[in-house]
Amino acid sequence: MDIKENDKLFGLLGRNISYSFSRGYFAEKFDLLELEDHKYVNFDIEDINHLFPLIEKYKNQLKGFNVTIPYKKEVIPFLDKMDKKAAKIGAVNTIRVTKKGKLKGYNTDFYGFKKSLKPLVNPSHKKALILGTGGASKAVAFALKEMNIEVSFVSRKKEKENSFTYEELNESVINTYQIIINCTPLGTHPNVDVCPNIPYQYLGSSHILYDLIYNPSKTLFLKKGEDQGAIIKNGLEMLELQAEKAWRIWQKS
């Protein structure tokens, strides 16, 4: 991409992010708004310590960036300030560069997830299982707690009191937890033939299966849920909502 001296620069910070949703989304947005001096680029770095040289390189142009795997938690020590909700969540996916060049971290993932899940939820949905324990799972847990939904995590090793291993998921657990959210990368293109190892046979029409993955639009996790009559949703609307929230934050600069 040809970056000119007067361009306002936005980007995505992550590792192995050639597939990036954000770059295409914001390129289209800038075209629609006729913002020819706005550019969105992928900052694909091997190590979080490469962040400051990157900021120095574009210090007069960089206005904000999104953060994705694996840096949503790792980026926190590099920030000057954090929004209160991002601090409570313990993960950042949006950073605004202030007029004084300071970095302020926000979390718009929880907003996008909460707003996209809400229309599917009814009073019977009281408990949720979160598959995975990375940065995105923290935002999902925060959103669910705001909705008064009890949360438990599932991971390969038992990490906390309110957690399960995959081996512990049985018919009783699946019947108790009516919402199941995949916050792992399992099933992402091109590895579309894999899915989280849960007992899908115990799912039914009272369950919601939500996958943060958006490519493919229907992962094997969602297909298996749909086959059992569950309500299913992928992560595309969440991404769009969090991107719009990030755009509003950047416009404060």
UniProtKB/TrEMBL annotation:
Shikimate dehydrogenase substrate binding N-terminal domain mapped to chain residues: 12-95
InterPro entries the record matches: Aminoacid_DH-like_N_sf (IPR046346), NAD(P)-bd_dom_sf (IPR036291), Shikimate_DH-bd_N (IPR013708), Shikimate_DH_fam (IPR022893)
Transmembrane regions listed in the UniProt entry: none
UniProt GO cellular component terms: cytosol
GO molecular function, one term: NADP binding
Biological pathway: Metabolic intermediate biosynthesis; chorismate biosynthesis; chorismate from D-erythrose 4-phosphate and phosphoenolpyruvate: step 4/7
Keyword terms, alphabetized: Amino-acid biosynthesis, Aromatic amino acid biosynthesis, Oxidoreductase
The UniProt record lists the keyword NADP: no
Keyword Hydrolase in record: no
Gene3D superfamilies: Leucine Dehydrogenase, chain A, domain 1, NAD(P)-binding Rossmann-like Domain
CDD domains (UniProt xref): NAD_bind_Shikimate_DH
Pfam families according to UniProt: Shikimate_dh_N (PF08501)
GO biological process: aromatic amino acid family biosynthetic process; chorismate biosynthetic process; shikimate metabolic process
Leader sequence residues: none
Protein name: Shikimate dehydrogenase
Record organism: Tenacibaculum skagerrakense
